Amino acid sequence: MSGDQDCIKILEKYIREELPESDREKVKKLIVSDPKIAGLYNTLKTLEDEKDASGWPQIRDSALNLSTRLFDDFRKKNLKNEVDYGVTVFDSKVLPLPDGGRPAIIDARRLKYIIGRIRLELSLYPVSAASYEIVGQMSGLTDCPAVRVVLKSNKATLTAIADQFHLFRFSRVPVRKYSLLIMNENKRIGLVKLDI
Amino acid sequence: MSTKAKTTLSALVTRCRNGEKKAWRELIDQVAPVVFAICRQLKLPREESFDVFGEVSYLLLKNLRRLRSGEKVLKYVATMTKREIFAQNRKSRLMKFLDGAILEEIHDDPENTPDTIYEIAQKSQAIMDAMFLLPEKDYQLIKALFFDSSNPSYEKIAKKLNITVSSVGPYRARSLQKLEKILRAKKIIP
What we know:
Chain A is of the alpha+beta class. Chain A has helices at 2-15, 21-33, 35-54, 56-79, and strands at residues 87-91, 109-115, 118-128, 131-139, 147-152, 157-161, 167-174, 177-184, 187-195.
């Protein structure tokens, strides 16, 4: 059995190109001539390729983070029986950084929500250390000629009117937690929680 | 799919339907690699890959109750990933078209044809399906050794699997042999 384990270690190094050239040639010949080693090599290579293909180990935490938020929003929507409660399906803030990368100080953040049939995309641009410009795009709205978007926090309420393309903008939004409400005339048709 | 694997996936789906967050995370841990493998092989940038992942996760959560059986979840995820990628492709082509590229000959990207997307999705799904055919401990071991971002030590793996540290190595060799048989039977390897 320890022979098998040594074989596995050597094949793993071969696949990762960690062997010196002379050893690589020997291993290559073994793979060609020994069916048992060839089978083990093919299995290890398949697993390594699949691991590399997905990049899963590097992005796992970010993906789980995003999917957990999605789950929490979905649960809130169902528990509160609020059909217009927005579910977060994308937040650029959770994306993994390359090794050694630092988060940029000046960088737009992008969020996407699904609210029933409505889709909401937000882009947040830092204006100062304590405020952001928010540009939003809604789609999937029908029979909604006069849509207002309201940002409510415990300190203030801000309102923007969406244009004919359902685009809206808030020029300077202080950093804090908000409820973003989408209003069609006086009826609420969408609600998302936004933590800037 | 082995009875144990069916139990694992089906049990996870049932627990998710009952609102268990921990089960959802475990389910995503099982199926998300398929999504990202397809995206990465099609050279989707990071943001777009996560875009696709978010949409697919939403659809999976929304349609959990409609899945006829838990073991179909991998196939469902692979199918939804393909659809989302197609949708993104169409959107970006439309943008290029509107961007004044009307006079350019629009070449089909040979790496991103529907057939290529289908093949890649099928292969990733097939590998995951093969792993699910392993007995539970073998599956957990292979997963820990190849797909766990924390790179657990043999000590941690041994504790998780309730085996001795000295037996992890031999166990790995046997698990790989079992997987090799399955991969060969599925014609994933020669």
